[in-house]
TrEMBL record:
Pfam families: HxlR
The entry's keywords: Plasmid
Record bears the keyword NAD: no
Acidic residues biased stretches: 141-159
The protein, known as: Transcriptional regulator, HxlR family
Keyword flag Signal: no
Amino acid sequence: MVKQISGYLEMSGAIGLLVHLKYESRRFNELKDLVGVSPSTLTTRLNEGRDLGLITTRIGEDEYDLDQRSIHHEYMITDRGELVLEKMDEFEVTYAYKQLREAEQKLVEGRENLRVWIEDNEDEIAQAEDEHSTRDKYGEDVTEPAEVDGDYSEFMEKD
């Protein structure tokens, strides 16, 4: 079981799933949005977490919808899961996970901002390439061999 839990924590979405269940029970769609994995991966991690005794399921309080004939399940952490989470906190895994998710969000936002900027500045970008296509950022011609000070022949490969 110990090796299985260790292996589980290495799988995509497992750590995020435990982190987001730490303080409250959550529904599938909430977890899907928070953890950032595909629905099939989330289903697999939830089932594996249940099999390992880290996660349990309950029917949501007063969530039985007679009109739709559906029952809403909530996922929550077990005592074993809490023990693992305590160690995740101690070893700063939870903190690292949250930092990683924030960095991922900044990357997504930055990439989108960059895409918009590129679309809005096509002419400037095209002109910059046309003017300096053979020069580096210092204005040096990159098509000519660079002059080298000193004798570096000892570092060159010999045939």
